[in-house]
Write a structure and sequence with these properties.
homodimer; about 160 residues; alpha+beta
Chain lengths: ~160, ~160
């Protein structure tokens, strides 16, 4: 493999990172408290209308999004790892502990690291197949997650 | 759905259960100590020639089996949940925390419950697709895991 050839991880992964001028504890709250999740989690014109989350390894989450035509889309998943204020890992491969979902699509690791008095916020989506990663990118991962990161930062700054 | 129609769980699941006359702590040791794992984990003529296990939620396992022709087959997985002497959950959907594997095939829950002075041992394999469940059954799940359960019980009784 050449020096610059993408490795398997790169081919399966999408990453978004931002340096946000808010303490990481506030960003973590926005990711884990239902009343906050609903305020930033989807790019308009979609809305997040409900969030039920059991934030612990093995706990379930159900986040319901609503499209501009009123269509409601529940997203079921499970937390694999939770380190308060530092790290969240979740996946849609299970709907509860440990029921396989219809389609294992991705595993997301979100990290909150202190950096120069700010917070390095990184969301890393790993997919089981390159095709799924490509589909996710074409669905607008970078723009969509970027808009959400802005909404997250703005909301966290008000806390 | 009729009263006796299989539900989604049944269609995705294979289960083996035994009442074993050994305390559950000894069975748990056989499942989690490399020097014991290699003694019971495969039905002959296959052998388990190596076991590296990091028995904690998020820990990796690599169990290497060897066929009668000498072929070595490493099996990579990860523990999702570990409750000492009671419960183990692991899957081949990840090769380490949290790298997706090439093929998420199954998630196994093993439970050890006290029952009438003995141990109710149950291994439950859940698959992401009905096709994978069927393939696993045709590979000889019931016979294979049954032989291994006998080997497990015999080994645990010597501890």
């Amino acid at each position: 493999m050449g020096l610059f050839a993408p490795d398997a991880t790169t081919l399966h992964e999408l990453v978004l990172t931002r340096l946000i001028n808010v303490p990481r504890a506030k960003l973590f709250r926005c990711w884990t408290e239902p009343a906050l999740i609903t305020q930033w989690f989807t790019p308009p014109p979609w809305k997040t209308i409900a969030a039920e989350v059991d934030v612990r390894a093995g706990g379930s989450s159900c986040i319901t999004m609503q499209g501009p035509d009123g269509t409601k889309v529940p997203n079921l998943g499970i937390y694999l790892e939770v380190v308060k204020n530092e790290r969240l890992v979740f996946t849609d491969a299970y709907t509860s502990a440990w029921e396989p979902s219809d389609k294992p699509f991705m595993t997301v690791t979100v990290t909150f690291e202190e950096e120069a008095g700010k917070t390095r916020y990184t969301a890393r989506a790993r997919h089981w197949t390159v095709a799924d990663r490509e589909q996710h990118e074409q669905m607008g991962f970078h723009v969509g997650w970027g808009i959400c990161a802005d909404q997250l930062a703005a909301l966290a700054a008000t806390l």
